[in-house]
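Students often ask why we bother encoding 3D structure as a string. The short answer is that it lets us treat folding as translation between two languages. Here is a chain of 76 residues written in the first language.
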Amino acid sequence: MDFILAALFLAATILVAIILLHDLLKEFSKVSITSKQSFIRLILVAITTIVLLVAFILYLTLSTGKVSYILATIGT
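And here it is in the second language, the structure alphabet:
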């Protein structure tokens, strides 16, 4: 069960990173003086999302007590 959860969280993290990178590149291609505020907001949302995902994965890792197993699964 832990392996499945770790794999799902890894897949979700990769999916979110791809979506955010796509949005970031789309915004970067049309950056002008008026859209810099939305560009900065997008970067802050991306950073916040990644931090929350990492925190949730660490919480799952520490709550299950199988630190090395889950971290090894996430690392592959």
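Translate back mentally: The chain has a mean pLDDT of 72. Keep this in mind for the problem set.
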